[in-house]
Design brief:
- The chain is of the alpha+beta class.
- The chain has 5 domains: 51 residues; 80 residues, Beta Barrel (conserved putative lor/sdh protein from methanococcus maripaludis s2 fold), CATH 2.40.420.20; 86 residues, Elongation Factor Tu (Ef-tu), domain 3; 61 residues, RNA polymerase II/Efflux pump adaptor protein, barrel-sandwich hybrid domain (OB fold (Dihydrolipoamide Acetyltransferase, E2P)), CATH 2.40.50.100; 76 residues, Orthogonal Bundle (Helix Hairpins), CATH 1.10.287.470.
- 32% of the residues lie in helices and 33% in strands.
- It has a 6-stranded antiparallel β-barrel with strand order 2-11-14-13-12-15. The protein has a 4-stranded antiparallel sheet with strand order 3-10-8-5, with no helix packed on it. A 4-stranded antiparallel sheet has the order 7-6-4-9, with no helix packed on it.
- A hairpin with a 5-residue loop joins strand 18 and strand 19.
- The longest helix has 47 residues.
- It is rod-shaped.
- It starts with a helix and ends with a strand.
- This is Efflux RND transporter periplasmic adaptor subunit.
- One of its GO terms (molecular function) is efflux transmembrane transporter activity.
- It comes from Sphingorhabdus lacus.
Length: 392
């Protein structure tokens, strides 16, 4: 009995000790949790500046995303019009047969040559025409001999009429004979002159000085008035670009405006000026032609394609980076930040592209705060935290 009582007492004491230790651990854990909560509360108090709740508006601003905005202002930019067109001779002169033609005996020039006004381009056989001219010269000789004889007879008749050997009627007949002989001489001279002029037209000559663009005749070929164009000349070698411009662009250019032309296949730039603006618009494509004069250069080949940049004066307009301009179903737009820091869509019309960005032709006056980046992630009436970026 005593043994069992002693063992029972020992077991009860161990259980009680274990329970006390568990209670102590729970108390310690509870104290640690309380200390952590107190520390968090203190940190929140001091970081918030006060223990009072923040106003609703400040809470919204603290949750709004920070977005970079810019006030573009207005810049003076050069209005540049980019277009394309076809190279051509400023004054292209077609050359064909103006006489009766014949067989070509010789061609003196080729495409790419320079010619002077009146220079012979081709020569046509004139063996028959030369004989005709010789016959007319002989007829002139006969007519002059008849005239000389008629004049001598008239002179003698005038001397005899005073003595009464010849009547006045005979003198009149001899005078008429002399006048008819003189008329025949004049007719023969005119016929000879006509024949010589026709023979001269057998030589095809350059009507103007210039550059030979095209040759369509060979030695031995028979040519006539129906042979078509034998040569094409660029008068004085002057070239031009016939730039196709829209109605709006055509209204911005005038004669004398400078332009830079770059032919296809080369990186060379040729400077020219607009010398004529088309008075009419093509009803099919709604475009007109601005003709840009260019100096002669072999790299400017008529019929070739070229691009042109026309300096159409300067203008004052806002300029924005491409990241600020969005595109929707109704066209281009930007996001404007109002005084309440809410964004609004503003439709704009985009002009030309410059080194600094896109020219805003209409829709902005430059004083607005425009979202510079992240416009694609915003929604209308969304509140943001704007960060103004100053333009350099």
């Amino acid at each position: 009995m005593n043994y069992e009582t002693t063992m029972s007492g020992t077991l009860d004491g161990g259980v009680l000790a274990e329970r006390e230790n568990t209670s102590r651990r729970r108390v310690i854990i509870a104290l640690i949790v309380v200390a952590i909560l107190v520390a968090i509360g203190a940190a929140y108090y001091f970081m918030g500046g006060s223990g009072a709740a923040a106003p609703a508006g400040d809470e919204k601003n603290s949750q709004a995303q920070t977005v970079t905005v810019v006030a573009p202002g207005r810049d003076t930019v050069v209005r540049a019009i980019n277009a394309t067109g076809t190279l051509a001779a400023r004054r292209e002169i077609p050359v064909g047969v103006v006489g009766e033609g014949g067989q070509v005996t010789r061609v003196f020039v080729d495409a790419g040559d320079w010619v002077q006004r009146g220079q012979v381009l081709i020569s046509v056989d004139r063996s028959v025409q030369v004989q005709q001219a010789a016959a007319l010269e002989a007829q002139i000789g006969v007519a002059r001999a008849d005239l000389l004889l008629a004049q001598n007879e008239l002179d003698r008749a005038l001397q005899l009429v005073e003595r009464g050997f010849i009547s006045k009627a005979d003198v009149d007949r001899k005078t008429a004979t002399r006048d008819a002989a003189r008329a025949r001489v004049n007719v023969a001279n005119a016929q000879l002159g006509e024949t010589r002029a026709r023979n001269a037209r057998l030589d095809i000559r350059a009507p103007v000085s210039g550059y030979v663009l095209e040759r369509n005749v060979e030695t031995g070929q028979t040519v006539s008035a129906g042979s078509g164009i034998l040569f094409r000349l660029a008068q004085d070698g002057q070239m031009e670009l016939q730039a196709q411009l829209s109605e709006n662009d055509l209204a911005l250019v005038t004669e004398g405006v400078p332009a830079s032309v770059t032919p296809v296949g080369t990186d060379r730039v040729f400077n020219g000026t607009i010398w004529q603006v088309a008075p009419m618009i093509n009803t099919q494509n709604r475009q007109g032609i601005a003709r840009i004069s260019l100096p002669f250069d072999k790299a400017l080949r008529p019929g070739g394609f070229a691009s042109v940049e026309i300096k159409a004066g300067s203008m004052s307009a806002p300029v924005l980076p491409e990241s600020a301009v969005q595109t929707g179903r109704e066209g281009s737009f930007v996001y404007i930040v109002g005084k309440d820091n809410k964004v609004k869509q503003r439709p704009v019309k985009v002009g030309d592209t410059t080194a600094n960005g896109l020219i805003i032709a209409s829709g902005l006056d430059g004083t607005e705060r425009v979202v510079l980046y992240a416009g694609g992630f915003l929604n209308p009436d969304e509140t943001i935290n704007p960060k103004l970026l100053k333009k350099p």
